[in-house]
Amino acid sequence: MIPFACTAAALPAFPFAPSAGTILVVEDEAFVCELAAEALLDEGYRVLTAADADEAEAILSREQVDLLFTDIDLARNTNGIALAHRARRALPRLPVVYTSGGRDGLSAAEAVSRSVFVPKPYRTAQIVAVTHDLLRDRG
Fold this sequence. Notes:
There is one protein chain. The protein is of the alpha/beta class. Helices cover 34% and strands 17% of the residues. It has 4 helices and 5 strands. The protein has helices at 30-42, 53-62, 80-90, 124-136, and strands at residues 22-26, 46-50, 67-71, 96-100, 116-119. Strands 2-1-3-4-5 form a 5-stranded parallel β-sheet, sandwiched between helices. β1 (22-26), α1 (30-42) and β2 (46-50) form a beta-alpha-beta unit. α1 (30-42) crosses α4 (124-136) and α2 (53-62) runs parallel beside α3 (80-90). It is globular. The model is unreliable at 1-5 and 7-18 (pLDDT under 50).
C-alpha cells in the first residue's frame, strides 16, 4: 500500500492524468482514508486528503478540486454536511459524495443538491464508479 498522511494534503508520487481530475478525500480514520485514496489514485485521479473539515476548507481555498468525498462525522467535532454546504457556496458545481457508517442516508434538506451518499462499509469499486459517474456528468 502507498503510505498516506491523511491529516494533510497528500499528492501522488507519480504523474497523474490531468484530465482525470482532483479528488479531496475527507476522512478521519487513517486506514479508511488510505483505502479510498489509493483506489482513486489507481484510477489516475490526483488525490488530496484531510482528516477534518477545517483542513479540507484550507485545501479547498488553495487547490482546484473537482470532487469532494467526505465522511459525515469527522474529527474535532467537524461535520462533512456543513463542509459540503460551505464548499458549494464557493464552488456551486462541485460534485459531493457523502459517506458514513452511522446512518443509512441523508435527507434532501441535509445534503447539497446533486450529491450522492455511499454507506460504510463500501467497496472501493463503489467509490470509483460513483466518482467516474459524477465527474463524467459534471458538464
